[in-house]
Write a structure and sequence with these properties.
about 210 residues, alpha/beta, Alpha-Beta Plaits, five-stranded mixed β-sheet
Amino acid sequence: MSDRDDDLEYPGPGGPGSGHGGGGTDRDPPGAAPSGYLRGVGVVIVAVIIGVLLMPSATRAPLEVKTAAASTPSSSTPPTTAPRTGSTTTSLATIVPGASSVHVLVANGTSITALAAGTSTYLRSRGFLTLAPTNSTTKVTRTQVYAVSGPSSSATSVIEALGLSAATVQPTGAVAPVPSTTGANVVVITGPDLARLAPGSTTSSTSAPTD
């Protein structure tokens, strides 16, 4: 045989068709990217997306939490009470200087029940000494005051305590219309202008005019 025949009969280790262009089937085709590289690129892309999504949460300021104030009132705050309605305002009467030496007889000169008694109670609250109240023998339209004994200043003290004018004092020597003036320095004949001092009046007796 010739040398050419030997070459045909005994092919090389790569078998028929082997040579510079031959080879195994496990190689990637020319121009194709390796699969491991693609997987790596995919992992990086997923990591970048997750980082972008989480970044706003990490940098966001914490939510403001407001705590509701307790509605229970403080124990140091005094309770609020509604003002009373229909009550009568009263004020304490002051004592008139020198009143303790003046004896006053009060007589009712009107049809107002217990007006003399109410006026006597008020004069006592101002410091005057009062005799038992009585009724006048005549009716009067305005209060009259008589100075029956002692200085005339006693009658002046009485009318000032009652909030009356100086014209209320009757002339010296005038006789008071009462059964008796024994023991009195001043006699008061109550008129309708003192109706506020009657018991049960809407104005308390202690809120009458004072000095």
